[in-house]
Amino acid sequence: MLATSTLNRVMIVELGLAALVPGALVGAHYGVQIARPLWGHGSDAGGRRTPWILGGVALLAAAVTGAALAVAVMADSFAIGLGLAIVDFILIGFGVGAAGTSLLALIASYTPDARRPATAMLVWLMMILGIAITGLATGRFLDPFSMDRLIAVTAAVALLATAVAVLALAGVEKGTLPAPPAGATRSFETFRAGLADAWHDPEARRFTVFVFVSMIAYSMQDLILEPYAGLVFGMTPGETTTLSGVQNGGVLAGMLLGGLGGTAFHRRFPAVLKHLGVTGCLLSAAALLALAGAASGSHAWPLRANVFALGFANGLFAVAAVASMMALAGAGGPTRTGLRMGLWGAAQGLGFGLGGFLGAAAVDAMRLAGAPGSAAYAGVFLIEAAGFTASAALAVRISMPHRVPEGGERRDAAAPRWNSRRAPA
Predict the structure, then answer these.
(1) Which residue of 36, 98, 215, 244 pairs with 342 in a disulfide if CB–CB is 3.0 to 4.6 A?
(2) Exposure string (b/e) for 296-318, b if CB count within 10 Å is 16 or more?
């Protein structure tokens, strides 16, 4: 949050830099997410995931503090500060990738099938809660603003986050992972073999494409929704900022419904995760079509309700995607969970970063081509809707693994082609 929001604002407002500078730095942080499969493989081969999680958090904390220092240096020497910032944002990406991939693999290893929707909901809720608390606390302590205060507050938040991570993980991981096959090491050859195995699994491959396409669609409106509301509906900066809160409220509602509903109905309807994911994608497409239709500029359009609906659909889709990720990650066996989770984390990071860039670039390109501003924004929303529709079509074709209960084989009533691979306990 500090790296992608607070430092972004300081570079643009306080230092007067072009938005391209922080945009490129944040893009570098997303770009290195392609290394996530390697971090996941390391935690698989190492026998324990906790060291990778804490190591990633420590690297993230140091890099965020370094990034704040680099921004302060920019005020006196832009070239030196930019060089430091590039290194720090790359390290931020590595820290996020190592910690996030290993944490999700740990959660997937310990969570029973029936509890995965609720677990995915809790993970997202805790992430949003952490962002909210950090934003409120740092906003209070950063005023009156100075570069020295920025560095001090960032360092304090980083130190506190590291301490919380250490306490939260104490005693969670009992024992070690099952021993890898004889001769398996952390070598690059072993990593390549594991990655090839995951890619040759049709369900894992389809899910990778699904994550990439859906995250592009998910993030394309990230940088354009507030400008759209200001241009088409004449909203003030304060009003468009509250619109973001309305959307996040919808996300929370969708996650709660998806998490609780998915957990409650998982045993009776094994295909509930697939149905939630498809429903979330289609509802997201419908909400985006409505936003595109509202570009005519009718101030009577219920924009807040439309944005809440978009957030709700996104939340429903997100919970189903994370829970499905946990289930599919375990299908490769406990010594491949981290690598598979890393593969999908890489697809998520690259898709999210690319989507935000493409959304903003598409608006600029259409306006340069002579399209009115409202039509340009509507065009991007239509592209997003098409992306979510394609994601729904991909999700329908993904067969989720399931455990076979003692009473006999359980099949997915909604999908005769549901596979019979067993996820490990």
Answers:
(1) 36
(2) eeeeebebbebbbbbbbbbbbbb
Tell me the pTM: 0.76
Sequence letter at residue 152: A
Residue 421: pLDDT band by 50, 70, 90 thresholds? very low
d(CA 30, CA 306): 29
Asked, for residue 160, whether it belongs to a domain, the answer is yes
Query: How far from each other are the two terminal CA atoms of the chain, in whole angstroms?
Result: 35
382, 238 contact by CB (below 8 A): no
Rounded to whole angstroms, the Cα distance separating 286 from 292 reads 10
227 CB neighbour count, 10 Å cutoff? 15
Give buried/exposed letters for 328-343 (b at 16+ CB in 10 A, else e): bbbbbbbbbbbbbbbb
Residue 319 covered by a domain: yes
The rounded radius of gyration (Å) of the Cα atoms in the chain is: 22
CB 75 within 8 A of CB 15: yes
Which CATH number fits the domain that encloses residue 297? 1.20.1250.20
192 membership: H or E segment, kind and range: helix 188-200
Longest dimension (CA), the chain: 71
Number of domains in the chain: 1
- 377 and 241 Cβ atoms separated by less than 8 Å: no
Handedness of CA 117, 120, 122, 128 (dihedral sign): negative
pLDDT 10s digits, 336-366? 788 888 898 899 889 988 888 888 888 888 9
Give the domain extent around 295.
Answer: 2-176+185-396
393-418: pLDDT as tens digits: 999 998 876 554 333 333 333 333 33
Q: Is 122 in contact with 107 (CB distance < 8 Å)?
A: no
Write out the H or E segment, with its range, that includes residue 88: helix 78-110
Q: Which residue has the tokens 């072009």?
A: 18
Residue 266 CA: distances (Å) to CA of 11, 190, 258, 261, 269: 47, 35, 11, 8, 5
Amino acid at 24: A
The tens digit of pLDDT for each residue in 175-198 reads 655 555 544 455 656 777 777 888
Residue 418 within any structural domain of the chain: no
Q: Give the three-class secondary structure for 258.
A: helix
